[in-house]
Every structure is written in structure tokens, then in C-alpha cells.
């Protein structure tokens, strides 16, 4: 499930983008998931039909890497340790690999709902 | 009301167009037809895409894209079936769901199927919806997305089911086996991948996408309509098939060679046996068309064409003395070869007796001991079948499309009738003799302990 986001509105306005970029970088680093080797999309809750389906649609390599990142993060969290600097997620690695698929699935569901709720009037 | 945003720009355009063009292409059933009412096709080349249509009067139209991409031309096993599965799936312009719902609203029916030589994508609809469905077929051919998840979630399970279905059906197994023994590769490729084909190795959305690039190239497809005027068709094809790639590497099969031989497959559920001989290529191929094979098929027969009687055909007479066996002669004609098959099914004992009887009757034809009356009946039946096939919308459509992409001629019904009529008894006898002298193809599926070998039947393999 994708959370409501202002990202689209911001990225359309270059001046706003310039202001927000450092803030967002600071926030992502402060959130701490990068220090555990995770990506932002790893944090999306799995407990919904859409996300489960999206996880099934991940390419094999991506799915494997995701599980690896999660297990490594659990391990680090249990041991109360951060990963060594080299293994932490770099900002350029923190890409959205799952949310585009979720957005696609949501768009499909929305379209189905639209088509199901339409009413037809015959042309005169 | 269909919400404007929901139906999409293309749908709107199509709907709007229909009401504008209505006066030109809509007419009541009783009115005089504007086009030809004959059963011959007019063909034309529209921007590199071959089209053919016959304007049969009536309120419905059948439109098909016929691609020279049947199992014969697939570069890896299963590609044709995979490509067929991707017909009417998500395209770059609209989703599969939308395609389905929109055509339901217009009362259209969409199907895709394949033969050994052609892949057919077909739409049936009301005559005035021609622009909408021409656009849809153009979109399927040039804009399909070939997504991984559709392949894994929808198409792959279907292919697996088709494999299981093939494995369970003895008659399909026997026919496929006869084809592969007779032609090895090319036409010998099974119509559906057999259950032990390692599909994961060959088949995925990317290999299918690559195959589509050459399968749906302009030089490789033809658009055939039944119940639409040639001008209308040419106009809409010109508009909507512009995006179809010109095609760098056309699919080419090796010229077919007949080999012959024997194959025996043990099977637990049912018995089937196919005796096959080299046949004639289809009428649309031109020179190598041999009408006497069609007459021979009618004379051998097997299934009665009238009620309450085994009929005149030699095999139905033979089979009627062996209850539990049924025989059927079919002539499969392709662009450059053909296969005359006699298929038996039933209990193993009855099949073994009936097949011996069948070879005897073929020998009697080759010796010329066939009555004048039976010969006349066979010619009449063969002529009727050829003409009916041409008149039959489905078969005529595919035959014409395949003929066009193979560089031949459209299926012209009056000429077929004439060439069948011209077959003489001597010609028939010579043809039967040639078949028996050459190598036969024999495939037995079922209880191999009982089913006879080709040697026992007196056939050369």
C-alpha cells in the first residue's frame, strides 16, 4: 500500500525540489533504515492483498535480495548493532523497486471498480 | 452513461465514427447489396499489409489477422501458443480488462487460435463496429506489452493445462505423432507442446516478445474480413495498422520434405492409430495442388455423410463389420505439403482388423477395381466439401489469409470446384498406386500388444 505523498507535487516544481532535496536526504538518513541496509520500499507493510501480489510479481533476483536485506536487518537489530559503513544502503541505492508495481496493481483495481460501477445509457 | 474518462479517447473516437459513417456501410437485410455477393475475395495491399475481404450481405462481420506464425514457424517450442495467449492482453493504450469490457458493450466476440501454419486473431461483431475492431486488432498486433506477470499468472497455467489435455487425448497424440514422423521438423512440430517439453528453458515473456516482432511484421500478416466492403477495410487498416513494424527478419520455414516411418506410443486410456500418406498442398499454393487426393479421401471416407446407412465410402463399409472401431479419413493440406490421414479409434482388436481392411481397400483402388458409381459419388462429395469449406466463413477466412501471406492466391471457390470435377478414374488410380509404392507413415497409440505394426498391414515404412 502506498502512503499519501507530496513527492509528485514537489518534483514538478524545480525550485521546491531544490529546497526539499537536502531536507529529505537528512530525514532518510535520520530514519535509520539505511544504517540497517534496508531500502525505503522494504518498509512497506506486507499485510494487504495488493502488496502480497506485488511481492509475487517481483523478479526473482529482486525478491531474493529483498529477503536478504530483511534478514540482515533483523540480525543487526537483534544484535543492537549498525552495519559496517560499506554495507549500509547508499542514497543512490535506495530506489523504489516495489512501489511502482503496487501503484500498477492499485490502478488496475481502480479501473475495474470504475468499469463495474458505470451505468450505460443508449444513444438516442 | 459510459463515463468519458472511463471509455478512453479511442473508444470515444470509435463510437463517434460509427455514427458518422453509418449511412455508407449500413443497410438493412432486404436491401440490395452494394458489394459483390459472390463468395470470392477481393484482395489489396494497404501500406504493406495484405488485406482481403468479401462483402457478403448481412449485419455481422468477421475480421481476422492471420499471421504466418503457426507451430511450423516458431523458432523455439511453445512460442506460438505463448503468443496466442498474449492476444487481447494489456497493451500500451489500454488494459486487457478494458478491451474485454468495451467489446462486450459492443457485442463483439474475440478469439485467438493457431493451426500448424497460421496464428489467427479474430473478432466477430456488428457491421457498423468495423473501425473499433480494426483498431483493436491493430493494437493487439503492434502495441501489446508482453508483461511478465500476465505470462506467469495467466498464460503459463493455460499452457500447462493444454499440455495435460494433449497427453490425455490418444487421437491428438496419434495425429501429432503422424505429423512428426512424416515431416520431422517444421510441419511435424506438435500443435501444442508435449508434456515433457522443457518450457521454462525456452518460453518467457521476452522470448515471446522477440518472436512477436517477426511474427507480426507487415510482410508476415494479412487482414481478412468477411462481411465488410474492401474500401472500408482498406481505409481503416490504412489508419490503424500503420504502427505495425516493417519486420527485419521474416520467419521462414524450411521447405517441407516428406519422410515417413513408424512410431508406437504406449498409452493407458484408449487406442488410436493413424495411417498417413503424403497428400496435396492447399489450393491457395497454386501449382502443387492435387485434387485427386481430395477425391481419394472422400472415397476412403469412414464417416457416413447421410443418416441410417454406413454410406458408400470404403472404410465405413469396412469398419461396420468390426463393431467398436471407427475410421475417418482426413486430408490436411498445408502451403507446400499435405498429409492424407486415415485415423482409427476404438478397441485395439477392432482397430487392428479395420486397419488391415483399410489397406486392402486402398490396394483395390490402386488396382482400379472400383465401381464407376462409387467414383462418381466420391467426386461429388469431394467437390461439395471443397466448396463448403470455401463458403464456410471460418475456413475460408483462414485459408485466404494463409494463402496471402504465403505469397499465393486467395481461396477462389469456383476454381476449386472445377479442378475437383476434372479428376478422372485413371488419375485416382495412379495417385493411389503412388501412395502405396512410397513410404507410409504409421502411428499407433494405446495397447501396443494388440495394435499391428506397419509391416503386418503390408505397408512400406
TrEMBL record, chain A:
Major localization listed first in the record, in broad terms: mitochondrion
One GO CC annotation: matrix side of mitochondrial inner membrane
Nucleotidyltransferase keyword on record: no
Keywords: Electron transport, Membrane, Mitochondrion, Mitochondrion inner membrane, Respiratory chain, Transport
Keyword Lyase found: no
Cross-referenced InterPro entries: QCR7 (IPR003197), QCR7_sf (IPR036544)
Entry superkingdom: Eukaryota
SUPFAM superfamilies from the UniProt entry: 14 kDa protein of cytochrome bc1 complex (Ubiquinol-cytochrome c reductase)
Example of a GO biological process term: mitochondrial respiratory chain complex III assembly
Membrane topology category: Peripheral membrane protein
Locations listed in the record: Mitochondrion inner membrane
Pfam families in UniProt: UCR_14kD
GO MF entry, a single one: quinol-cytochrome-c reductase activity
PANTHER family noted in UniProt: CYTOCHROME B-C1 COMPLEX SUBUNIT 7, UBIQUINOL-CYTOCHROME C REDUCTASE COMPLEX 14 KD PROTEIN
Similarity comment: Belongs to the UQCRB/QCR7 family.
UniProt function note: Component of the ubiquinol-cytochrome c oxidoreductase, a multisubunit transmembrane complex that is part of the mitochondrial electron transport chain which drives oxidative phosphorylation.
Protein name: Cytochrome b-c1 complex subunit 7
Species this protein is from: Glarea lozoyensis (strain ATCC 20868 / MF5171)
TrEMBL record, chain B:
A GO term, aspect molecular function: metal ion binding
Annotated membrane topology: Peripheral membrane protein
Domain of life: Eukaryota
Gene Ontology cellular-component annotations: mitochondrial inner membrane
Organism name: Glarea lozoyensis (strain ATCC 74030 / MF5533)
Domain Peptidase M16 C-terminal, residue spans: 203-380
Protein's cellular compartments: Mitochondrion inner membrane
UniProt KW Transport keyword: yes
Pfam families associated with the record: Peptidase_M16, Peptidase_M16_C
Family per similarity comment: Belongs to the peptidase M16 family. UQCRC2/QCR2 subfamily.
Keyword set includes Transit peptide: yes
Domain Peptidase M16 N-terminal: 57-180
PANTHER family in the record: CYTOCHROME B-C1 COMPLEX SUBUNIT 2, MITOCHONDRIAL, METALLOPROTEASE
InterPro entries recorded: Metalloenz_LuxS/M16, MPP/UQCRC_Complex, Pept_M16_N, Peptidase_M16_C
Keyword list, A-Z: Electron transport, Membrane, Mitochondrion, Mitochondrion inner membrane, Respiratory chain, Transit peptide, Transport
Annotated protein name in UniProt: Cytochrome b-c1 complex subunit 2, mitochondrial
Amino acid at each position: 500500500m502506498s502512503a499519501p505523498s507530496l513527492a509528485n507535487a514537489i518534483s514538478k516544481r524545480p525550485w521546491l525540489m531544490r529546497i526539499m532535496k537536502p531536507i529529505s536526504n537528512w530525514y532518510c538518513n535520520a530514519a535509520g533504515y539505511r544504517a540497517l541496509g534496508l531500502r525505503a520500499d522494504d518498509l512497506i507493510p506486507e499485510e494487504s492483498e495488493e502488496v502480497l501480489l506485488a511481492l509475487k510479481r517481483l523478479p526473482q533476483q529482486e525478491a531474493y535480495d529483498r529477503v536478504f536485506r530483511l534478514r540482515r536487518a533483523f540480525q543487526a537489530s537483534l544484535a543492537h548493532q549498525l552495519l559496517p559503513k560499506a554495507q549500509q544502503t547508499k542514497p543512490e541505492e535506495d530506489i523504489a523497486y516495489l512501489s511502482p508495481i503496487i501503484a500498477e496493481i492499485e490502478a488496475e483495481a481502480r479501473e475495474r471498480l470504475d468499469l463495474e460501477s458505470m451505468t450505460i445509457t443508449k444513444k438516442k | 452513461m459510459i463515463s468519458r474518462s472511463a471509455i478512453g479517447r479511442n473508444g470515444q473516437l470509435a463510437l463517434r465514427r460509427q455514427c458518422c459513417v453509418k449511412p455508407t456501410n449500413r443497410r438493412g437485410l432486404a436491401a440490395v447489396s452494394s458489394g459483390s455477393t459472390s463468395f470470392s475475395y477481393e484482395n489489396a495491399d494497404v501500406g504493406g499489409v495484405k488485406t482481403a475481404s468479401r462483402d457478403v450481405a448481412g449485419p455481422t462481420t468477421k475480421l481476422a489477422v492471420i499471421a504466418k506464425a503457426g507451430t511450423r514457424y516458431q523458432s523455439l517450442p511453445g512460442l506460438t501458443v505463448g503468443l496466442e495467449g498474449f492476444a487481447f492482453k494489456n497493451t500500451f493504450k489500454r488494459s486487457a480488462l478494458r478491451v474485454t469490457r468495451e467489446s462486450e458493450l459492443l457485442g463483439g466476440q474475440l478469439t485467438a487460435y493457431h493451426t500448424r501454419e497460421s496464428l489467427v486473431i479474430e473478432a466477430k461483431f456488428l457491421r457498423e463496429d468495423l473501425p473499433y475492431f480494426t483498431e483493436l486488432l491493430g493494437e493487439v498486433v503492434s502495441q501489446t506489452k508482453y508483461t511478465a506477470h500476465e505470462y506467469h499468472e495467466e498464460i503459463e497455467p493455460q499452457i500447462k493445462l493444454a499440455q495435460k489435455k494433449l497427453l490425455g487425448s490418444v487421437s491428438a497424440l496419434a495425429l501429432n505423432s503422424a505429423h512428426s514422423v512424416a515431416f520431422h521438423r517444421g510441419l511435424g512440430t506438435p500443435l501444442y507442446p508435449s508434456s515433457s517439453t522443457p518450457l521454462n528453458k525456452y518460453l518467457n515473456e521476452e522470448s515471446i516478445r522477440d518472436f512477436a516482432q517477426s511474427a507480426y511484421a507487415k510482410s508476415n500478416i494479412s487482414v481478412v474480413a468477411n462481411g465488410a466492403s474492401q474500401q472500408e477495410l482498406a481505409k481503416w487498416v490504412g489508419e490503424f495498422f500503420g504502427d505495425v513494424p516493417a519486420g527485419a527478419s521474416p520467419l521462414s520455414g524450411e521447405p517441407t520434405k516428406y519422410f515417413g516411418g513408424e512410431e508406437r506410443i504406449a498409452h493407458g486410456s484408449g487406442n488410436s492409430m493413424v495411417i498417413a500418406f503424403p497428400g496435396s498442398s492447399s489450393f491457395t499454393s497454386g501449382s502443387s495442388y492435387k485434387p485427386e487426393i481430395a477425391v481419394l479421401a472422400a472415397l476412403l471416407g469412414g464417416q457416413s455423410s447421410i443418416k441410417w446407412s454406413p454410406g458408400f465410402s470404403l472404410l465405413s463399409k469396412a469398419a461396420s463389420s468390426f463393431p467398436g472401431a471407427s475410421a475417418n479419413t482426413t486430408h490436411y493440406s498445408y502451403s507446400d505439403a499435405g498429409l492424407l490421414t486415415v485415423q482409427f479409434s476404438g478397441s485395439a482388436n477392432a482397430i487392428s482388423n479395420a486397419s488391415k481392411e483399410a489397406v486392402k481397400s486402398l490396394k483395390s483402388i490402386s488396382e482400379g477395381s472400383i465401381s464407376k458409381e462409387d467414383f462418381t459419388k466420391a467426386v461429388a462429395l469431394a467437390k461439395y466439401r471443397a466448396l463448403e469449406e470455401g463458403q464456410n466463413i471460418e475456413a475460408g477466412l483462414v485459408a485466404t489469409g494463409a494463402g496471402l501471406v504465403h505469397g499465393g492466391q486467395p481461396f477462389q471457390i469456383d476454381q476449386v470446384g472445377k479442378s475437383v470435377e476434372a479428376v478422372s478414374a485413371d488419375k485416382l488410380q495412379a495417385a493411389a498406386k503412388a501412395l502405396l509404392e512410397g513410404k507410409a507413415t504409421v502411428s499407433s497409440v494405446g495397447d501396443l500388444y494388440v495394435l499391428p505394426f506397419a509391416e503386418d498391414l503390408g505397408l512400406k515404412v
